[in-house]
Amino acid sequence: MAGFTIRGVSKVYGGTPPTETLTNIDLTIEDGEFLSILGPSGCGKSTLLEILAGLQLPSSGEVFIGGKKLQGPGIERGVVFQDPSLYPWRTVSKNVELGLELRGTTKAGRRAAAQKYLDLVGLTGFENKYPHHLSGGMKQRAGLARALANSPEVLLMDEPFGAVDHLTRLQLQDDLLDIWEAEKKTVVFVTHDVSEAVFLGDRVVLLSPRPGRISRIFQVPQKRPRK
Ligand code: ADP
Ligand code: ADP
């Protein structure tokens, strides 16, 4: 597991005029916690998550992961976006195996990992289907399995359930908590949905409208009882 220390992070996107997006974010994310980042559209949530993923550099300030200065993306951080972007010409299982393939894991090892995580996300039986056979919720499940198969210590999730219907979303939220309890990962979850942030998070960081700054941090008193 790994946590983050974010110190004085600001982000200004270039352009005329420049877009001041995040201002002076100071935050510690604990090992193994489920942290929700909540705020109105455009306040810089995605930018903050991309900074944690190493996909964006802060304009000023520093980010540490597990005590080490964060430099670019890393295999210990899995990212799940709203659009799971599965390769349509690969089966579900082959999509999940992709990261392991790039790392040179043996075929048997890849197969075993894909099976384990497809089972975990509730896609048993869909291994050899192609993405177009899956519903929206199931594509998200496959995207989550793909991230988990690389055994990341941290899951960075950006509105992953934003494009699925409401009832499916509730089911996915519940299942995500089950997976988080089973896999003991640090999760940083970006959403603009208050009930989602509170249902999922141990803590909720509330960002102000752009430029995003931390306006409140809530400890969630009664998260869903552990099963
Ligand atoms: P949120 O996820 O909270 O909706 P974002 O981080 O996506 O917020 O965006 C915050 C602000 O930064 C927006 O005004 C957006 O237009 C701007 N922004 C985001 N990415 C870029 C970029 N690559 N270049 C310029 N401006 C950007
Ligand atoms: P959605 O409501 O978008 O289908 P879920 O991930 O909640 O998303 O799917 C619920 C269940 O419905 C799946 O686990 C699966 O058993 C079944 N299902 C959904 N779509 C299909 C499909 N295209 N083919 C077969 N079963 C499906």
Automatic annotation (TrEMBL):
UniProt-listed CDD domains: ABC_NrtD_SsuB_transporters (cd03293)
Pfam families: ABC_tran (PF00005)
Taxonomy, superkingdom: Bacteria
The keyword Cell membrane is assigned to this record: no
Presence of the UniProt keyword Secreted in the record: no
Gene Ontology MF annotations: ATP binding; ATP hydrolysis activity
Domain spans labelled ABC transporter: 4-227
SMART domains, sorted: AAA
InterPro entries in the record: AAA+_ATPase, ABC_transporter-like_ATP-bd, ABC_transporter-like_CS, ABC_transporter_ATP-bind, P-loop_NTPase
This protein's UniProt keywords: ATP-binding, Nucleotide-binding, Transport
PANTHER family, A to Z: ALIPHATIC SULFONATES IMPORT ATP-BINDING PROTEIN SSUB (PTHR42788:SF13), TAURINE IMPORT ATP-BINDING PROTEIN-RELATED (PTHR42788)
Name of this protein: NitT/TauT family transport system ATP-binding protein
